Hints:
The structure is a homodimer of 270-residue chains. Chain A is built from eleven helices and no strands. With 270 residues, chain A is mainly alpha-helical. Chains A and B meet through helix 1, helix 6, helix 7, helix 8 and helix 10 of A and helix 1, helix 6, helix 7, helix 8 and helix 10 of B. Chain B binds a DNA duplex (30 and 30 nucleotides) through residues 31, 33-40, 62-64, 72-76, 78-79, 83-84.
Amino acid sequence: xxxxxxxxxxxxxxxxxxxxxxxxxxxxxxxxxxxxxxxxxxxxxxxxxxxxxxxxxxxxxxxxxxxxxxxxxxxxxxxxxxxxxxxxxxxxxxxxxxxxxxxxxxxxxxxxxxxxxxxxxxxxxxxxxxxxxxxxxxxxxxxxxxxxxxxxxxxxxxxxxxxxxxxxxxxxxxxxxxxxxxxxxxxxxxxxxxxxxxxxxxxxxxxxxxxxxxxxxxxxxxxxxxxxxxxxxxxxxxxxxxxxxxxxxxxxxxxxxxxxxxxxxxxxxx
Amino acid sequence: xxxxxxxxxxxxxxxxxxxxxxxxxxxxxxxxxxxxxxxxxxxxxxxxxxxxxxxxxxxxxxxxxxxxxxxxxxxxxxxxxxxxxxxxxxxxxxxxxxxxxxxxxxxxxxxxxxxxxxxxxxxxxxxxxxxxxxxxxxxxxxxxxxxxxxxxxxxxxxxxxxxxxxxxxxxxxxxxxxxxxxxxxxxxxxxxxxxxxxxxxxxxxxxxxxxxxxxxxxxxxxxxxxxxxxxxxxxxxxxxxxxxxxxxxxxxxxxxxxxxxxxxxxxxxx
DNA sequence: CACGGTACTTTACGCCGTAAGGAGTGGCAA
DNA sequence: TTGCCACTCCTTACGGCGTAAAGTACCGTG
Lengths: 270, 270
C-alpha cells in the first residue's frame, strides 16, 4: 500500500514542474470529475509566493502568509502543493523563465558571456531569494535546463573540451551568484536593520577603534585596503557606497575571469 | 534612559569579539563583584554551538539545543550572549581562527594563491554552516580581519593596483565559497534525505524521461553535457560521484581564474 | 435527492526565538 | 553574623513556523 518513500513525492513534483501550461491542457493534469471546483490553481499559489519573496525576502514566505495573500488559510495551499519544499522548487523554476535564452555569437563568445553574466546578475538582484536555495540537487525543471542550455551553447563557442568547459561553467556561475549575493545581502541588511551601509560602516568603524586601538598596527593591509578611494562607476553614481563598490568589483572580476578563459582557449585551442 | 537603538548591542558584540582571552584577563571583561559565580563562559557556549553546527548543520543550532548540550535551558544562554545573531557572529569569527595566516611567496604568488584556495575550500567543508551566514555586513572580528590580511598580503605580490586587486579578491572568494557550497549542499542533502547522490540522480533521471519524453531533443546540449564521462581525479577515486566532479571543477576553475590574474598582471604590470 | 469526491477550515502538536518574572547562590558591607 | 544585592539559572508564556487530523461546505454525478 505504501508508496516507496520519496518516490511518490518526487514524481508529483516533476509532473508539476513539467506540466503542460497550454490553454487546452485543462485542470493541469488534475482528474476532472465530481467535487467542488478549485478556486485557485498551482500558478496562483506559486505567483503569490514569488511576489511575497520578491517584496520581503524568503523569510516572509510562510504558508500562512501565502495563504493570506490569496484569501485562504495556510492549509488550503496543501491541495495545490505537497509541501513548502515543493513550492520553493516551483518558485525557482518559474522565475528562471525570465532569463534570456539566446546570446548571439556574432561578436564572439566573450561579448556573449559578458552579456550573460550581467543579465544573470540582474536576475539574481530581482529575485535574491533564489540565491538561498540549495545548489546541489537542483530542481530539474524545464527552465533550469534551459539556462544550462543557454550557457553551454555560448561556452561551446570557445572550443574548450568538455571537462574544462565544466570547470569554466562552474567558475562563472559561482562568481555571478557570489557577486550578486553580496549586493543582495547588503540590501536586505539595510532593509531589515533600517540602517544604510554608510551609517552602519561609520558606527562600526568607530566601535572598532574603541575596541581595538592598535588596529592599524595589527592589520596594516586591511587598513590600506579599506582606505583606497574607489573611483565611481559610470551610471551608478547615486547607488549606495558599498553597492557601487560591488558593481565595480563585478566588472573587474568578470574581466579577469574571461581573460583566464581566453588564456586557456589560446593554450589548448586549435 | 533608553540607549540608542542597536548601538548598545553593537558595542556589546564588538567587545565580545575582541575580548582579551589572555589568562590574566579574568572574567572576560565582566564586572567582577558580588553575585553568583558563572558556571559557564562565552567560549563554552560558542564552542557548543560550533560543535552542534559542525555535526548537524546550522539548522540544528537552536538556543534550546545548545543549552541542552551544556546541561542548561535555552534561557540560561542569554546571560552570556545577547541573542542568537550575536552567537552566530561569535561562532563565525572563532572558526575563522583555524585558517592558516601565512603563505610564503618564495615560489611566487600563484603557488601561494592555489594553496590559499585549497585551504579555504577545506575550511568551508569542515564548517559548511559558515557559508550560510550573510556576507554583507561582515562580523568585523579579529579573525575575520586576519583572513583579509592574509589574502591581501599574497595578492599584493601580484603588483596589481588597489581597485583591480579588490576585484580579484572578490572573484577568488566568490569562487571558493561557491565551489565549497556545491559540495557542502550535496553532502547535507545526502544526509537529510538519506539518499546518496547516485541514487538521487538515477531516480530523478528516470522520472525526467517519464515526464519529458522528448528531453534529448529539447535539451541537446544539456544531454551532451551530462553524458561526457568525467575522468577520475587522483586521490579522490572513492568519493561520491558528484563530489569527485566538484573537486575536478574546482581545480579547473581555479587554474582558469589564476590564468586570468596572470594575464591581467602581464598586461598592467611593470 | 442522496452520495462521493473535492476545497477549504479549524484545531492541534511540537518546534523556534525570546520576554517576563521568580528562585536560589554567593560576595560584600554593616 | 546578618542582610542585601548582584548575579545565574529556571519556569512559564507568547506569537511565529510547517503540517497532521478531522470536520464542513460545496459540487457534479447516479
